[in-house]
Design goal:
With 167 residues, the chain is mainly alpha-helical. The chain is built from five helices and no strands.
């Protein structure tokens, strides 16, 4: 039996896909922003606290850009029930109890922040691709800025983890 190739989605369907994924990341970022203070409180290393604060400010800017995207498209974000970012944060990054060794706790926080950033990087990459197909040039630029911030945060937490591990 020959595989069936589906036709390329039309602009209306692409916009639906775009809004679906934008809403997922938007609601996840909003939820994350509400919980970054908890992450800062968990950090035992001043450098990590400062990085989490910077991360929080970046999340806030990304939320603002996504709200601008909704305005540009004449849409409003809808509530989302299933959200991978929310699920990870709701479980308190699986950090229900403090480790005896602060380094382990800090490395866990860094690990989960990087997991979230990898979800965001992948989501932004897909949204940028769809925005390009729909010729949403301003939207594409805003998403690129969000993508760049998420990638920079991933690198920042990698450097901090490296500093921790190598001394």
């Amino acid at each position: 039996m020959e595989p069936i190739n589906s036709p390329a989605p039309d602009a209306a369907f692409l916009k639906l896909i775009f809004l679906h994924h934008l809403t997922r990341i938007y609601n996840g970022k909003r939820f994350l922003h509400q919980h970054t203070a908890n992450l800062t409180a968990m950090a035992s290393f001043k450098g990590l606290e400062l990085a989490i604060d910077e991360f929080s400010e970046d999340v806030k800017r990304q939320i603002s850009r996504m709200e601008e995207i909704y305005k540009l498209l004449g849409e409003t974000p809808s509530p989302e029930v299933c959200n991978p970012i929310k699920s990870i944060v709701k479980d308190e990054f699986c950090l229900d109890e403090t480790q005896n060794i602060p380094l382990l706790n800090d490395l866990d926080v860094m690990l989960y922040i990087q997991i979230l950033e990898h979800i965001n990087i992948t989501s932004y990459r897909m949204l940028i691709m769809i925005a390009k197909m729909l010729k949403y040039d301003e939207v594409k630029q805003l998403l690129t800025e969000n993508f760049d911030e998420s990638a920079d945060n991933d690198k920042l937490f990698t450097l901090i983890a490296k500093e921790y591990i190598t001394g």
